[in-house]
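Try this one yourself first.
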């Protein structure tokens, strides 16, 4: 949910992205292919960090994990590789490794076999322990999962194996370990099998099961025709599940061990567990508010973790007016945050909270102040575009999204921000066919000659554009303009590295 003014000038140099990383780590100096070859020949494991300079969660990881002496000592056992999302062929590597979201952090061997997909939102002690556990056996997650689910007497999953399963970044699995259709039953089995293990391990499987069930119920309702929605039967959570979640809210240890989940997925949890007003819903609201307020004051946490603990207060009890508190805490964060890593993470969270609580003037003030402070000012230009859109200021929103794209640096980042601008124009001024054609041709023409224009995250953006423009062009009054856009784009495919794929995309829009 994420940019350097001169970054594109340096992107071709071997250490391009390394300048944005904390000191104290000897990142591999050559490209990713060479890193895997080195790992294969040396039999040394590889730690691969896939990220971007502008990405707030990436900056949080740099601040809380990569800057830690404990991590910097542990990483010496690995070949550390930084794969910047704007590096040459980065999106091809992203597709090959199934890394979509920033940041993704992998432990792999020289045969390109994935051993562990490391999480965000954990302490540096747990992060290092997960690295060391992975290093101990170098056993892929699929094998560990099989042991946990079907462990036989002679070979069962160890405590370290269970900790790795509970610490694995399941939200980024991309069906490498579990097919989407099997997630619910797998997480349910892990939850039940871990009942006598460490309570933190058990609580994480419980939340994975709970959120997977909640998502399936939501999809069930969404996919039904409107006239049949009232007849849809929901699978309500059992009292046991509700009670286990309430117990988690009461436990400071379990709440903090799952802080990222309870902070950012509170709405999904509440809607599933407590769909209607009830005594148990009121109890959960009260407990969640009390625990969130204690967490905000916990000085052992990072500044971003403390500020993020306000997020549930906006979703758990929407009747409460949290506006003034959000303003006060956002200002406190602004005054407290130090350094480029912390500010990029924390100010992004602060502006999000202000927008969610409709404190738009304060959100604009903070975003504008970051334009001069951030090494990725275009990120905050896009925030200003979003705020203007929230307020119904169409022209201002489009102006800021265009400025953000113009200021963005790095080939793939520029395409990401350019796509956002096109979609913004389509949303706000669908009648402006000339403006849509101009934005589309400028952005697409720039990215087509790049070698990974149709790979990884770029491909997903082309797919989004195809769907959106196709829907826009299906409106009868726009048929002529739609055909003109296709005819304008088609000759640009001559510049594409993959001409046939480009022509196929143009025909699809």
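Now uncover the answer:
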């Amino acid at each position: 949910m994420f940019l350097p003014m001169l970054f594109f000038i340096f992107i071709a140099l071997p250490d391009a992205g390394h300048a944005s990383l904390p000191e104290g780590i000897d990142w591999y100096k050559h490209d990713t292919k060479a890193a895997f070859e080195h790992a294969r020949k040396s039999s040394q494991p590889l730690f691969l960090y896939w990220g971007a300079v502008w990405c707030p969660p990436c900056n949080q990881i740099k601040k809380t994990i990569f800057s830690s002496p404990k991590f910097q000592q542990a990483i010496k056992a690995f070949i550390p590789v930084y794969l910047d999302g704007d590096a040459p062929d980065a999106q091809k590597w992203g597709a090959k490794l199934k890394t979509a979201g920033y940041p993704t952090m992998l432990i792999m061997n020289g045969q390109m076999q994935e051993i562990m997909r490391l999480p965000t939102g954990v302490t540096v002690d747990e992060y290092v322990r997960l690295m060391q556990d992975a290093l101990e056996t170098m056993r892929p997650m699929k094998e560990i999962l099989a042991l946990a689910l079907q462990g036989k007497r002679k070979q069962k999953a160890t405590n370290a194996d269970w900790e790795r399963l509970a610490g694995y970044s399941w939200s980024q699995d991309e069906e490498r370990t579990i097919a989407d259709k099997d997630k619910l039953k797998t997480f349910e089995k892990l939850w039940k099998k871990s009942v006598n293990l460490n309570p933190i391990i058990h609580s994480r499987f419980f939340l994975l099961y709970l959120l997977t069930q909640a998502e399936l119920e939501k999809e069930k309702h969404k996919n039904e025709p409107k006239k049949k929605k009232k007849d849809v039967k929901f699978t309500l959570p059992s009292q046991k599940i509700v009670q286990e979640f309430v117990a988690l809210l009461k436990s400071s240890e379990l709440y903090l061990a799952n802080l990222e989940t309870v902070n950012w997925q509170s709405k999904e949890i509440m809607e599933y567990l407590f769909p209607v007003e009830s005594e148990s819903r009121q109890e959960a609201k009260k407990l969640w508010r009390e625990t969130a307020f204690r967490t905000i004051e916990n000085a052992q946490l990072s500044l971003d973790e403390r500020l993020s603990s306000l997020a549930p207060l906006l979703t758990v009890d929407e009747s409460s007016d949290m506006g003034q508190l959000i303003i006060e805490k956002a200002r406190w964060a602004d005054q407290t945050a130090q350094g480029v890593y912390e500010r990029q993470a924390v100010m992004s969270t602060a502006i999000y909270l202000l927008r969610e609580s409709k404190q738009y003037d304060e959100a604009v003030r903070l975003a504008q102040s970051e334009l001069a402070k951030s090494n990725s000012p275009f990120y905050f230009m896009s925030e200003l575009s979003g705020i203007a859109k929230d307020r119904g200021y169409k022209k201002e929103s489009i102006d800021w999204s265009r400025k953000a794209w113009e200021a963005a640096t790095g080939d793939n980042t520029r395409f990401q921000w350019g796509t956002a601008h096109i979609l913004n124009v389509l949303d706000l001024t669908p009648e402006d066919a000339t403006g849509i054609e101009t934005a589309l041709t400028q952005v697409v023409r720039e990215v087509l000659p790049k070698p990974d224009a149709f790979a990884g995250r770029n491909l997903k953006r082309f797919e989004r554009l195809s769907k959106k423009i196709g829907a826009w062009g299906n409106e009868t009054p726009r048929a002529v303009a739609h055909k003109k856009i296709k005819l304008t784009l088609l000759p640009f495919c001559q510049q594409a590295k993959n001409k046939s794929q480009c022509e196929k995309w143009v025909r699809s829009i």
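Discussion: Residues 1-16 have pLDDT under 50 and may be disordered. The first helix runs from residue 7 to 10.
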